[in-house]
């Protein structure tokens, strides 16, 4: 009985202490004025869709009170939502420390490929299938997909435009192909462009080597890339990079090479 009573008293003391501390912090926040703003953009060395200056201007030109206002009046979640309306921003975290300094952490979207259709304005697609407009100040080093490309698009519940490759099997394969290329140290540098012809077949444009790579459909793309890699490692080391004019991978389990 005494042990139980001791536990009850302990919990009451802890609750009282918490209430006092909460009240103290609340009163302190009411007196703290936001003076400084610190902005951090992740992976800004490799991706430069947005800059700290642009983020600062977005905050200053917003309808929200920030610097010079009490910390408790700053609507951090509303600021996050406002920043996330920028197509290039995947996630925004805004918080204030006890001194009243405002911190903004930005995660940019990571482009997967650049699409230039014969019938549409170009755009980027990120790793989550989000459509990003072309940037006037920055062009990321990603694979270019051009020609007769018509990604079906839709707008999700958050108002974000996305590609819908589920409605087109070839484009679903193309997205998987682009992810495989971007994650491979050799292919990422070697395959710089993918062209889709009017008949729906794909051609790969290499960075090194004056040869045409006829890929056919995007089906079995992983196997085709393995065959191409074997050709590079075995055939090209023996005969050189400029021996062949065309490399045809469109037929299953076959590589047909045409000499110059």
Gist of the model:
The protein has 260 residues and is an alpha/beta fold. 33% of the residues lie in helices and 27% in strands.
Strand/helix succession: HEHHEEEEEEEEHHEEEHEE
Quick one: biggest sheet? Answer: 9 strands, mixed
CATH class of the largest domain: Alpha Beta
The rough form would be described as: elongated
What is the beta-strand fraction? 25-35%
CATH topology call of the largest domain: Rossmann fold
The tally of helices reads 6
Q: Strand arrangement, largest sheet? A: 6-5-4-7-10-11-12-13-14
Low-confidence stretches: none
CATH second-level architecture of the largest domain? 3-Layer(aba) Sandwich
Overall mean confidence score, pLDDT: 86
Class from secondary-structure proportions: alpha/beta
Give me the count of strands: 14
CATH superfamily of the largest domain: Cell division protein FtsQ/DivIB
Gyration radius, to the nearest Å? 27 Å
What share of residues is helical? 25-40%
Commentary on this structure:
By secondary structure, this protein is an alpha/beta fold. It has two domains: 37-108, Ubiquitin-like (UB roll); 111-259, Cell division protein FtsQ/DivIB (Rossmann fold). Helices cover 33% and strands 27% of the residues. The longest helix has 30 residues, at 2-31. The radius of gyration is 27 Å and the shape is elongated. The model has no long low-confidence stretch (mean pLDDT 86).
What structural keywords apply?
3-stranded mixed sheet; 33% helix; alpha/beta; Ubiquitin-like (UB roll); Rossmann fold; 2 domains; elongated; 260 residues; 6 helices; 9-stranded mixed sheet
């Amino acid at each position: 009985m005494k042990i139980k009573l001791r536990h009850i008293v302990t919990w009451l003391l802890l609750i009282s202490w918490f209430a006092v501390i909460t009240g103290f912090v609340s009163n302190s926040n009411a007196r703290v004025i936001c003076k400084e703003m610190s902005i951090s953009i992740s992976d800004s060395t490799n991706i430069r869709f947005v800059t700290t200056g642009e983020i600062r201007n977005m905050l200053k030109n917003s309808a929200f009170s920030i610097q010079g206002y009490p910390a408790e009046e700053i609507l951090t979640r509303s600021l996050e939502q406002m920043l996330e309306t920028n197509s290039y921003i995947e996630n925004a975290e805004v918080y204030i420390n006890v001194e009243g300094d405002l911190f903004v952490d930005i995660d940019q979207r990571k482009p997967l490929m650049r699409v230039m259709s014969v019938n549409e304005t170009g755009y980027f697609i990120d790793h989550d299938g989000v459509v990003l407009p072309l940037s006037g100040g920055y062009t990321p080093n990603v694979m270019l997909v051009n020609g007769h490309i018509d990604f079906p698009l839709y707008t999700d519940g958050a108002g974000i435009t996305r590609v819908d490759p589920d409605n087109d099997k070839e484009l679903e394969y193309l997205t998987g192909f682009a992810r495989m290329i971007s994650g491979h140290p050799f292919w990422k540098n070697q395959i710089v462009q993918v062209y889709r012809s009017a008949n729906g077949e794909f051609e790969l444009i290499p960075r090194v080597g004056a040869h045409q790579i006829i890929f056919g459909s995007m089906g079995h793309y992983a196997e085709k890339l393995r065959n191409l890699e074997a050709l590079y490692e075995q055939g090209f080391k023996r005969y050189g990079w400029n021996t062949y004019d065309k490399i045809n991978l469109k037929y299953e389990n076959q590589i047909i090479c045409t000499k110059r």
